[in-house]
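Table 4 source record.
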Amino acid sequence: MNVENKVIIVTGGSRGIGKAIVEDLAAAGAKVLFTYRSSAEAAEAIAEATGATAIQADVADEAACQALVARTEALGGLDAVVNNAGITRDGLMLRMPDSDWDAVLRTNLDGTFRMCRAAAAIMLRQRRGSIVNLTSISGIRGNSGQANYAASKAAVAAMSRSLAKELAKRSIRVNCVAPGFIDTDMVQSMDPRIVAGVKKAVPMRRLGKPEEVAKLVRFLVSDDSSFITGQEIVVDGGLSV
């Protein structure tokens, strides 16, 4: 799982799973650039602690994606992209406004596609690279009140399989990591009774740790996973079994 001196972009790296991924990769010696949208103070603190570079960017903006990838050329190229940026706008379908549907699809699906496209342009010239897209157990099983989020994540998984086939001949790999219930700020803000119910439903009887997702991501961006592409690997303590 050696990533020393690899140039890696992580989107949505200022909190939760994204933060753990940035910290893990930076600690392993990678040159990490990570994006944030609004958490400037948190992002700068992470940058200072890890040596990574924080960049304010909206991945749904095509120009922002292109500019972000262009910054890696001065570092010697782009080895990997981890598309973690995502949002939720939960609500039952009959009460869900179009704006909530559109916002989630715009960031989670459109943003991931645009980052993949921008990254692939330079990776194709290099004839190497790894793209890891964060999906979700919700995109596999569905989840009441998350029609928009589940649809976006399922679409990312399907898109990733198609991109894996398109890019494999140039030694570019595309894989997905699908976390289950991970102990992040979002989960900690949930009703404790709901969290307790989730733990009972998980065969391992606990929430996952962000670090457990980050280690899998590091494996997938490292050369140790050089013959793995087009896969969606679930990290959920057995919930989807």
